[in-house]
Amino acid sequence: MLTLAVLLVGCEKPNRLEQIHEEGVLRVITRNTPTTYYQDRNGDTGLEYELSKRFADSLGVELDLSTSYTLDEIYQRLGAENGPDLAAAGLTINPAREGQVRFAEPYLDATPQVVYRRGTRQPRNLGDIYGKRVMVLKGSTLADQLRDLQLEHPELMFEESDNLEVVDLLRLVNDDEIDHAVVYSNELVVNQAFYPAVRVGFDLDQPRPIAWVLPHSNDDSLLEAISSFFETIKANGTLDQLVERFYGHSDVLDYVGARAFARHMQSRLPRFETHFRQAGDQYALDWRLLAGMAYQESLWDPDARSPTGVRGLMMLTLPTAKFVGVTNRIDPKQSIFGGARYLVWVRDQLSTDIPEPDRTWFALAAYNVGLGHLEDARILTRNNGRDPDRWIDVKDHLPLLAKKQWYTQTRYGYARGVEPVNYVQNIRRYYEILQWITQPQSETGRLPDSNYHTPGILEQLPQGI
C-alpha cells in the first residue's frame, strides 16, 4: 500500500503553473490596439504587453503573445483545448462571462461612456440616444450592459460589430457616420487626439474594473501567481509608472489644438521633415520627438520669436545658440540641429541611473526650465519620500517650485514649475500622434499582424478644414 501511495503521488498531474515552468512559455492572447499591444520603432509595446512581459519574466519563462480579431474569439480560445494560459486584453470584469472564464484581481478602472460628435446635440442620458444609431463592440461587457438596460428602456437600440475596434467606432462618430458609440474612458483618452471631433456625452455607469482573464478551472495556481505579481508591482510603483507611461499624457490636446496640429502637419511639417530625420540620425534621437519639440516651441514656424528674444523653430536663446554652434537661429536646419545637440547635451548631464523613457522626459523638462530647477524638484521629490528617478513622481513636485514655502528650500529658487510639466506632456502627445501616423509606412513597411490600423489624424478632418 505504501508503494502504491508513492506511485500515485508520483503520477499526480502538475498544476498549470508547474506546467508553464516545465514548458518554459507563458501563452497570452491580447488585442492589437493602442491600449493593449502594438509595435513601434523599438518593437513590441503597449500596457498589456509590458505587463505580460514582466509577468513572464517574473516566472522565468518566455512570453508567447498572440492577437485576436474579436472579443468573442478571445473567450472562445480561452475555453479551447491547448488554448492560451490567459488573456491580457484590456477586458473589464463581466458577470455574464463568469460561468465561462475566471477573472483575476483587477488592476485598473475604466468608465463606460457614450460619445458623440462635436457640433451635434450632446446626449446627457439614455433618453437622448433613443432612435439614434449607436454602436458597440460585439462580445464586450458594454454590449451586455446595454442589453440589460434595454429591459428598462425598450426604446434603446444599438448595433454590435465584431469587424471593428474601438478606434473604428471613434472614427465613425468623428466622421458623422454614426451618432454615438459606447466605449471605455481609457480607450477614448488614448485615441481622442486622432479623432478631435469626438466628445463625451455622459457616463453610462460607474467605473468598471479591468483584469486578466483565465480559462475556467479548479486549478488556482496561475491565478494565485497573477495576484502575487500585481500585488508586487502595485507595491513597488511599477504599475503606476506603466499607467503613467501610456496614459499620463493623453488629456493635453483639446479639439482646437488637435485641428491646428493636423493643419500644420499638412502645411508646415513637410518643409522640415528631412532636417528632423537627419538630425535624429546624427544624434540618435527619434525624429518625431524632435518634431514634437519644435511644434511645442514654435508651431513649426521658423520665424517665431518670443517677447524674451528666443527665436526659430527650436526657440533657442542667444547663449544656447552660441553654445551649440548655431550662427543663424532662424535657419531651419541650424535650429533643428542645434536643438537636437542641446537636448542630447542636457540628457547627458542627467544621472545614468534614471531609466528610459523617464530620462528623456527629464531632459525635455530641463530643456524648458533648466537643469538646476529640475534638480531642485528631484531633491524635493526625494525629501517627500518619492522616487527622484521617475517622471511620474518628479512631475508632481515641479509645480512646487512656484510656491514660496517650497522654493525657499531649494538652491535655485522660484520657477514656473507647471510649465515644464505641460511642456513635456504636450510633446509626448505630439510625438505619439506622429508615431502612429508614420509608423506603418516608415518603420516596418507593413501593418501589424491583425487588422487594426489607426488612420492618420489628417484622414479624420472634415473636408475644407
Question: Which tags fit this structure?
Answer:
globular; 3 domains; three-stranded parallel β-sheet; single chain; 20 helices; D-Maltodextrin-Binding Protein, domain 2; 465 residues; disordered C terminus; alpha/beta
Brief summary:
The protein has 465 residues and is of the alpha/beta class. Helices cover 48% and strands 12% of the residues.
Account of the protein in words:
The chain is of the alpha/beta class. It has 3 domains: 16-105 and 212-247, D-Maltodextrin-Binding Protein, domain 2 (3-Layer(aba) Sandwich), CATH 3.40.190; 112-205, D-Maltodextrin-Binding Protein, domain 2; 255-442, Lysozyme (Orthogonal Bundle). It has helices at 2-10, 16-23, 47-59, 71-79, 141-152, 166-174, 185-191, 221-235, 238-247, 255-267, 269-283, 287-298, 318-323, 332-349, 358-369, 371-383, 391-397, 404-407, 418-444, 457-460; strands at 25-30, 38-40, 43-45, 62-67, 86-87, 101-103, 108-110, 112-117, 134-137, 159-161, 180-184, 198-203, 208-210, 213-215. Helix 11 runs parallel beside helix 14. It is globular. It starts with a helix and ends in a 5-residue tail after the last helix.
Give me the secondary-structure topology.
Elements: H1 2-10, H2 16-23, E1 25-30, E2 38-40, E3 43-45, H3 47-59, E4 62-67, H4 71-79, E5 86-87, E6 101-103, E7 108-110, E8 112-117, E9 134-137, H5 141-152, E10 159-161, H6 166-174, E11 180-184, H7 185-191, E12 198-203, E13 208-210, E14 213-215, H8 221-235, H9 238-247, H10 255-267, H11 269-283, H12 287-298, H13 318-323, H14 332-349, H15 358-369, H16 371-383, H17 391-397, H18 404-407, H19 418-444, H20 457-460
Parallel strand pairs: 1-4, 1-5, 9-10, 9-11
Antiparallel strand pairs: 2-3, 6-14, 7-13, 8-11, 8-12
